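Q: What structure does this chain adopt?
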Amino acid sequence: MKKITLALATLITLPLSCYANAEVEKSEVTVGLVSQYAPKYMGSKNDKTDFLPYFDWTRGSWFANSEKGAGYQHQFDTGFYLGQALGYSWGRADDDSWYQDGSRHLKGMGKINAAMTSTTTLGWWMAEWIGFESNIIAPLTDSQGMQYKIGLNVVLFNDGDNTLVVNTERKYGDARFNNTWFGVNEKQSQNSGFKPFRSDWGLNSVDYSINWQHTFSPNWSGYAEVRYTTLASRVSHSPLVEKDDFMTGTLGVFYTF
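A:
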């Protein structure tokens, strides 16, 4: 099933939590439904709408959810937090797919296999309204290359029931990663008709987003996000890329118990 990515996780982890006691052994479960309007794959000119369930479980510093996978995150009194998670990348199809990124435009490129991933996270809320987060994502079951992310989160407004956050995130890949998703080797060129293309390591995309969370009651909440993504020049010249910038819209409703 395709993974929908939400800024600051689905239910926003407020900066205040970084200064609270993260070792309280209390289980909390969140379930929900998320709708996302996005390109069929990164660089596609055609869009599609996905409707997917969401699940999140936390107990102290342990967590498991449908976005990040399962893992452990420790929060320090200084505002720093450090985490490690095992997750899953759903890959990409070379045809239209309801559970993966993909399009018929990629026919002949072959599929990118799904893979188990390891994500290491280091973040720091400098104050209650501004924080940084970095991630290192490594594939464990398929050689797809390394991905690196660094983001800035700014809380514009928070009155307890409403939270408005702006975010920017820069995404980098090594040469193997960038070529897995944007490259065209000789065999793929022969099968698909695309011209061969090879990318170097480095920045591949930048995201800018604004998201809003509203609490309807102690159990019910809603989430909305608009995100603008632009592809970096080292991958935007790939023949797979039909459009090098695009918008993504996300809506979600959640129940916590």
